Amino acid sequence: xxxxRLEELSASNxxxxxxxxxxxxxxxxxxxxxxxxxxxxxxxxxSWPRVVIKDDKVVGFIRGNFDEDAPEEEFRSCVWRxxxxxxxxxxxxxxxxxxxxxxxxxxxxxxxLSALWEPGDDGPEAFFTNIGFVVERETQYGEKFGILTx
Length: 150
Hints:
Strand content: 25-35%
CATH class: Alpha Beta
CATH superfamily: Gcn5-related N-acetyltransferase (GNAT)
């Protein structure tokens, strides 16, 4: 992971981030319904979008959200999206991005980082639990909220 770095999402790297590919079967897990609904309430000042660069190429994207006043605790410090190119999955890119987001959360004074995912064979549950997220509850849609204690 030493050759990975984060950059803020910008006009110069947004197209590459949008072109990231998925593995077959992962399309249904890109954004859970609960996040799609809550997305309308996000304030651009609380969003933390970054791309992951490896050898001068965009290989991942992460968007966090930090809003200490969010009505639901899970949305105060959370992984909003994490996306790693199909060719780079399993090589530490996603872990690098999530741990960088966790560091940012810690620096901002948060003690927890949440993530939300849909369960399923090709879903991200094993990824999040391997990093240390613990399932805290399920939503009305059957999605799982996981919490990483910082």
